[in-house]
Amino acid sequence: MEILGIDCWRVLFHPLTGEWIPGARESLQRIVRSGKYKEIHVISKVPHLLQPITRLNFYLKGFFKKTGIPKTNLHFCVGYAQKAEIARELGVTRFIDDRLEVLKDMNFMLARYAFHPNSRERAAYPDVEKSTTTVHSWAEVEKLLLE
C-alpha cells in the first residue's frame, strides 16, 4: 500500500487565515475512507516559534477528528530540504505541495503533485514542473489519488 504526504500551508490551510482550502477536508475524508493509503502524513516547513500555533490550528479546525488522520502523523521541519528527508524516512510514495522547490528533492516518489504553484515557482523550476502533475483543486487531487 502507498503512503501519502501532504504540505500544510496553501494546500490544506490558507496561510493568512488558517481556514481550510476549499474541498480539502471533504476530499481528505474520502481519501482516508477509501483505504487506498496505508498512512497519510502532513509534512510542513514551519519555524520553531510558529509550530505550537500551527499545531493549535489543526486542533481548532478539527483536522484529526474530521479527517481520521492521526495527530502523530503531523511533522514539522524548519527547512524545505528537510521535507524530502522526512518523507523518505516515512516511506512516502506520493506528495502534494504548492512549491516546486520542495518537489524537486522528491524525485524518488511514484508521483508528485504541484498544488496550484505560483508563476515565480513555475519560472524557477520548469523541469520540475514537467516531471510533476499540476493540480488546481482538491477535486483534481482526489480524482488522481483515488483512480
What does it look like?
The chain has 147 residues and is an alpha/beta fold. It has one domain: 3-Layer(aba) Sandwich (Rossmann fold). Helices cover 41% and strands 20% of the residues. The chain contains eight helices and six strands, in the order βαβααβαβαβααβα. A six-stranded parallel β-sheet has the order 3-2-1-4-5-6, sandwiched between helices. Strand 1, helix 1 (24-34) and strand 2 (37-45) form a beta-alpha-beta unit. The longest helix is centred in the first third of the chain and has 11 residues, at 24-34. It is globular, with a radius of gyration of 14 Å. The two termini are 14 Å apart. The model has no long low-confidence stretch (mean pLDDT 97).
Strand pairing plus helix content: what structural class?
A: alpha/beta
Please tally the helical runs, counting DSSP H or I stretches of 4 or more residues: 8
Largest sheet: 6 strands, parallel
Silhouette = globular
CATH superfamily: HAD superfamily/HAD-like
SSE sequence, one letter per element: EHEHHEHEHEHHEH
Tell me the fraction of residues in β-strands, as a range. 15-25%
Give the count of structural domains. 1
Instruction: Tally the beta strands.
Output: 6
Outline the low-pLDDT stretches.
none
Question: Rounded to an integer, what's the Rg over CA atoms?
Answer: 14 Å
* Residues in helices, as a percent range: 40-55%
Instruction: Compute the separation of the termini in Å.
Output: 14 Å
Q: State the name of the first-level CATH class.
A: Alpha Beta
Reported CATH architecture = 3-Layer(aba) Sandwich
